[in-house]
Amino acid sequence: MVDVRESGSSTGLMREFVVPKSVWRLQVAELPGPARLHPVFESIGIQTLRDLHGRSVAEFLQQKNCGVCTIAALEELLQRAVSGEFDSSPAERGNAFQALLILIEAAIQRLPNDHRRLLLQRVGLKGSSPQTLEQLGRRRGLTRQGIRFILQTLIAEIRKSFGTRIPRLLDDVRKYCVSNVCPLTPELFEKLAPGFQSRLRLSPEAHVRVISVLGEYLPCWPKGQDHLRDPDADSRRLSEHVARIAWRARGPLTLKQAYRELKTQRRHRSLTVLQYLQRLRNARRIRIQFGNPQQPVICSFRRRIHRHHRRAASQTR
Question: Taking a C-beta distance cutoff of 8 angstroms, is the pair 193, 176 a contact?
Answer without folding.
Answer: no
